[in-house]
Amino acid sequence: MGASMIKEMAGKDRPREKLIHSGAANLTDAELLAIFLRTGIAGTDVMTLALQLLNRFGSLKGILGSSLNEFKQVKGLGMAKYAQLQAAGELVKRAINEQWHESHSFTDPAHVNDYLLNNFECCEYERFACLLLNSKHRLLRFDYLFNGGINSAQVYPRVVAQHCLRHNAAAIIFAHNHPSGDVQPSQADRDLTVRLVKTLQLIDVKVLDHFIIGHRQTFSMASHQMI
After folding, report:
1. Which of 46, 116, 144, 218 is least buried, going by the fewest C-beta atoms within 10 A?
2. Is 131 found in the same domain as 73?
3. Is residue 210 one of the residues assigned to a domain?
4. Are 116 and 14 in a shared domain?
5. Is 98 exposed, middle or buried (0-12, 13-18, 19+ CB in 10 A)?
6. Torsion angles phi and psi, residue 120, rounded to 5
7. How confident is the model at residue 104 (pLDDT cuts 50, 70, 90)?
8. Are residues 26 and 118 in the same domain?
9. Quick check: 185 and 226 in contact, CB under 8 A?
């Protein structure tokens, strides 16, 4: 049996047609996933393949958070379908971020919390990011600056300062994740924050906060009087 495509399904069962006639909100996770997968594999139609993916990874979040090697362990799936799904996830993330750019001042820790959880979701390794703000604390840009184990030897205050100057930032919020899920700052986290604050004072950029992100929770160092 050849690979089953969505167009080979009965009209009423086709996820694309259902989306057009009933709206995307009325599709199941498997139906939405099938639209992006487009084709099944030999002996497995696309809807069955979508259900197998959901069962293997537990959720849409699990699929989008999987590595390429993990994704390819599912028979018939490779780089092309992985890239399609990763691109879809990134589009959603960017659309959400656009709303924040337009409507939020980054002075409320609760707002920053939601923004960071959206951006750090599915990160499997440690990443260090900064939110550059203007004088009204509106977001100029969000950037991941360093990857891997974050400590004072691997995050360079000079690079951060250059980044602030390049984009005319008046203030900054730092964030990094702990893949372990523990959001309590280590001594290295505290020492690094002190170094960053001192460096950025020299160029008149105010450090508003440093967030640590775990599993669906964050820790604000400013809220705990650590900055």
Report:
1. 144
2. no
3. yes
4. no
5. exposed
6. -95, -5
7. low
8. no
9. yes
* Parent domain of 33: 6-93
User: What is the value of pTM for the model shown?
Assistant: 0.62
Identify whether residues 80 and 123 lie together within a single domain: no
Would you place residue 1 in the very low, low, confident or very high pLDDT band (cuts 50, 70, 90)? very low
Q: 26 and 127: one domain?
A: no
